[in-house]
Amino acid sequence: MQECDVLIIGAGAAGLFCAIEAAKRQRRVIVIDHANKAGKKILMSGGGRCNFTNYNVSPDKYLSHNPHFCKSALSRYTQWDFIELVKKYNIRFHEKTLGQLFCDGSSKEILNLLLSQCQQYHVQIELKEPILSTNKIADHFQITTNKNQYICQSLVIACGGLSIPTMGASAFGYQIAEQFNIKVWPLRAGLVPITLHQADKEKLSPLSGISCESIVSSKRMQFRENILFTHRGLSGPAILQISNYWQPGDALTINFSPTIDIFEELKSAQKQTPKRLLKNILEKFFPKRFVNVLFSPDMLSKTLHDISNNDLQKIVSTLQVWTIKPNGTEGYRTAEVTIGGVDCDALSSKTMEAVNVKGLYFIGEVVDVTGWLGGYNFQWAWSSGWAAGQVV
């Protein structure tokens, strides 16, 4: 049996960061994970370059049933604080787009930073240890794994959500919440590609691999970034972003031409080159495959002179108010995050401690706080981990 002040379940971004902060306060900290390696999701994130935070972090970039909950942690440990830490370790980084910060080199640099600090402050990390049972006895917790038994004063749940099960994701954190009668909001895949109904999938399959800047809108939100046609449906940053807000049965509206006024371009071309084919004009702005799928051969073979105002409106509508009703999403298999989770109203926004279970804390993705694509979820991991690390 091992005794410690703080036991953290989950050796990911939030868990490691919390461990470091607690150990700085001379707390005896043990981190347990069932995986064979710490920080697996860190390593694969951002295409192997780890989108570790964003210049534009603010509470309105997060979804939660309690939208105010994230404000405290995000304001007390900010993106600027983590950027300073990255600079201290001489990790070179760059802004890719929209404030998103990536390592110039590899995600390993961020993980090595965390592991280096864990070593510096004597954090004990135990891997390949699935949890068999968790109990609260008087004022401490007893955790039994396949290898050992642990006794701790503070228990931190930092084991993430259900996204990317091949990385070892599980429902363990939600099960612990329910064991202690803490509400868990319904879960669904977030930041995930969408799938299409069979007829749409067959029609659009020739477009697989085409990417274009677009404005994608749902009933609740819109995003302007690239979309990507795939053999299963639609992906790309704008689609991943809107997936957090899309609800089954809703349609999506896509403007494939956010920078060009297609109506004005076609009207101008009608005057200057009335004998040109519509096909030739559209292919100036869009890939040939794209034009051939969205419009009929009869329409494309018309000269500009033969296109009526009614035709023009239909063309513009197709390109700038294109509507599609998704079949669903690709689910947790490719989702970057899990939406929903441990009810924020059951936690302290300052400490992340369960209101009705003294000594039990929840941080990171397991909590009902989900950020946009672009480093926001890593910042929530750092901020929530930091907040708990000050008090455990």
Q: How does the SSE layout of this entry go?
A:
Blueprint: E1 2-9, H1 13-24, E2 29-32, H2 40-44, E3 51-54, E4 62-63, H3 71-76, H4 79-88, E5 93-95, E6 100-103, H5 108-120, E7 124-126, E8 131-137, E9 140-145, E10 149-157, H6 172-179, E11 184-190, E12 194-195, H7 198-204, E13 211-217, E14 222-229, E15 233-235, H8 237-243, E16 252-255, H9 262-272, H10 278-282, H11 288-294, H12 297-300, H13 309-320, E17 322-324, E18 328-329, E19 337-342, E20 360-362, E21 370-371, H14 376-389
Parallel strand pairs: 1-2, 1-10, 2-7, 10-20
Antiparallel strand pairs: 3-6, 4-21, 5-6, 8-9, 9-10, 11-19, 12-15, 12-18, 13-14, 13-16, 14-15, 16-17
The geometry reads as elongated
- What is the share of helical residues? 25-40%
Number of strand segments = 21
CATH class placement of the largest domain: Alpha Beta
**Would you tell me the structural class of the helices and strands?**
alpha+beta
Total number of distinct structural domains: 2
- Major sheet attributes: 7 strands, mixed
Per CATH, the architecture of the largest domain is 3-Layer(bba) Sandwich
State the distance separating the first and last CA atoms: 21 Å
Strand content: 15-25%
**CATH level-3 fold name of the largest domain:** FAD/NAD(P)-binding domain
Question: If helices are DSSP runs of H or I spanning 4 or more residues, what is the number of helices?
Answer: 14
Classified in CATH, the superfamily of the largest domain is: FAD/NAD(P)-binding domain
Rg, nearest Å: 25 Å
The low-pLDDT segments are none
Mean pLDDT: 96
